[in-house]
Amino acid sequence: MADRTLSNLLREDRRFPPPAALAQQANVTAAAYDEAAADPEAFWAAQAARLDWAEPWTDVLDWSRAPFARWFTGGRLNVAENCLDRHVRAGLGDRVAFHWEGEPGDTRTLTYAELTDEVSRAANALLALGVRAGDRVAIYMPMIPETVVAMLACARIGAPHTVVFGGFSAEALRGRIQDCDARVVVTADGGYRKGAASALKPAVDEALEQCPDVRSVLVVRRTGQDVGWTEGRDVWWHDLVAAQSAEHTPEAFDSEHPLYIMYTSGTTARPKGILHTTGGYLTQVAWSHWAVFDVKPEHDVYWTAADIGWVTGHSYIVYGPLANGVTSVLYEGTPDTPHQGRWWEIVQKYKVTILYCAPTAIRTFMKWGDAIPADFDLSSLRLLGSVGEPINPEAWVWYRRAIGGDRTPVVDTWWQTETGAHMISPLPGVSTCKPGSALRALPGVSAEVVDDQGEPVPNGSGGYLVLTRPWPSMLRTIWGDEQRYVDTYWSRFPGRYFAGDGAKKDEDGDIWLLGRVDDVMNVSGHRISTTEVESALVSHPLVAEAAVVGAADPTTGQGIVAFVILRGDAAAEGGQEDPAAGLRAHVGREIGPIARPRQILVVAELPKTRSGKIMRRLLRDIAENRELGDVTTLTDSSVMDAIKERLPDAP
Ligand code: 6R9
């Protein structure tokens, strides 16, 4: 892989040093890298001390049963207590924890004191339903405050939660409930999406037909729509939770007590239940949120515009911001309801200072055009973040200019459900940013790019991303399948964690992520990453978004097939002319003739997961004219039908 990759990304030479004012007051300085490198365990022990521990740990890390890690062994703490009660005790009870904005425009403000009471009531309600420490609870909810309350109530009583994205099907929900043997489900009648009430409860009812062990369903009334009701099993949140006492004394749990299971799709059909535990997870999530977003809890209004059903929502809507006592925004709906300026209206209204979202959202806003954000006052923003996929340099520069007013650093944060917290990212007060690069491993984290034999590649070359030391928020196992944990992550390069992503090191040793290694194409023996071709396409003024796949090709092994969405203004002006020839030539100029797509299809939408990741697997099925594989993790399965309709006859 190392030698033959093409390198248009590495020709990106725009540089953005940290703003002086931010650098002067930054939470973390360059010294942290050296400190952490000298003694990573001492570094993490110092970060763990940011939390309240009921009992101190004896060892920082026990790696004697590698790759099964134990962090802060013997230590005891309660996650909800750290996120709530301790802030109230410190006199911060009146600080806003969440400014919640419903899609129809209804709002709720929850202070730390109010959230603590609500979580205590919900914890008492779960206890009343017979939930005990160690029992799993499934949460299938819209983006409403009760979702956060339910998660923290579970954490408070030591019942690991598994949050299933509200956009997933009954089938996906059933599989997850059964895999972790959850006995209680928390849900809502529905939520608001795209201007209408979208039902959730029917999917729960359908899933539970095949989950006889689920004994209780706690239902939040959000939309008021009619719901089916199973007497003896279903209970309204407003009946049960409201009747509980707001007094609940949290018990301290072992540092390795399970906190949650988050399912993520693998390359095979069965989703993996990624297990996160208590002390190490909260330590790294709290530290990274404080360091990477440079949060000042007294001043900042922080917004992760992502779904709670994605790991990003767990770590950077719920646990990180609350552990740091920060004020956040929580938004229920879609970015274009009721108009395409909705996010910017929210930034203006709450004077959001830090915004964190996915490249797919950024490219969508690019497509809608600069005029929309320009209508709002975004001057409160001081820092922007990106997560979920490689961010194309053009999208990065647009984000900084059109949203960040050419002032704000953009932190491109690489991490995974499995890593629990940020791993590779700029530090906004330290790093000179390069559009499209996540730069280097954070203090306390060790990453490397290696070749097929596991040898580190020289600067200027590409290979596989690995993590070379355990880290506090690492997954502990795959729920119920230790062997799959070992095989998936620790066998490809023994002793090191295989992330499944391709990456390059530039001449400075900075890291550029190139997408999943299964997204690398092989065209006439040249290894070309989908990310590189997509970035070349997105750098063309006509293109807002692109998805590239390798389709079997009788002569070249694989041929490049590109699906593109045109920018709003371009699509309107474009007339009848087919842009494919111009785009092919553009890719040829940007990367080289070998990377010119065999086919370019203009489409209106692309198939995405909850986190905005393009499901290239499905596009490959289309490009190779196959039946579609598993679509249970798609946010909107009708997208595939729309794409198929636009297809010319198969090549
Ligand atoms: C947090 C999250 C993990 C995969 C990961 C990689 C991709 C995430 C990225 C990125 C390039 C970034 N990814 N952040 N690629 N640059 N800044 O997304 O978790 O849903 O488990 O996905 O997402 O391919 O391996 P998850």
Automatic annotation (TrEMBL):
Names of required cofactors: Mg(2+)
Chain positions recorded as ATP binding sites: 388-390, 412-417, 501, 516, 527
Domain AMP-dependent synthetase/ligase: 91-471
Modification after translation: Acetylated. Deacetylation by the SIR2-homolog deacetylase activates the enzyme.
GO MF annotation list: acetate-CoA ligase activity
Known catalytic reactions: acetate + ATP + CoA = acetyl-CoA + AMP + diphosphate
N6-acetyllysine modified-residue sites: 613
Domain named Acetyl-coenzyme A synthetase N-terminal: residues: 31-83
Protein's UniProt keywords contain Metal-binding: yes
Keyword Electron transport: no
Binding site for Mg(2+): 538, 540, 543
CDD domains: ACS (cd05966)
Assigned keywords, A-Z: Acetylation, ATP-binding, Ligase, Magnesium, Metal-binding, Nucleotide-binding
Pfam families: ACAS_N, AMP-binding, AMP-binding_C
Domain AMP-binding enzyme C-terminal: 532-613
Enzyme Commission number(s) from the entry: 6.2.1.1
Binding site for CoA: 193-196, 312, 524
Transmembrane segments: none
Job description of the protein: Catalyzes the conversion of acetate into acetyl-CoA (AcCoA), an essential intermediate at the junction of anabolic and catabolic pathways. AcsA undergoes a two-step reaction. In the first half reaction, AcsA combines acetate with ATP to form acetyl-adenylate (AcAMP) intermediate. In the second half reaction, it can then transfer the acetyl group from AcAMP to the sulfhydryl group of CoA, forming the product AcCoA.
Family statement: Belongs to the ATP-dependent AMP-binding enzyme family.
HAMAP family referenced in this protein's UniProt entry, alphabetically: Ac_CoA_synth (MF_01123)
Name used for this protein in its record: Acetyl-coenzyme A synthetase
Species of the source: Actinacidiphila epipremni
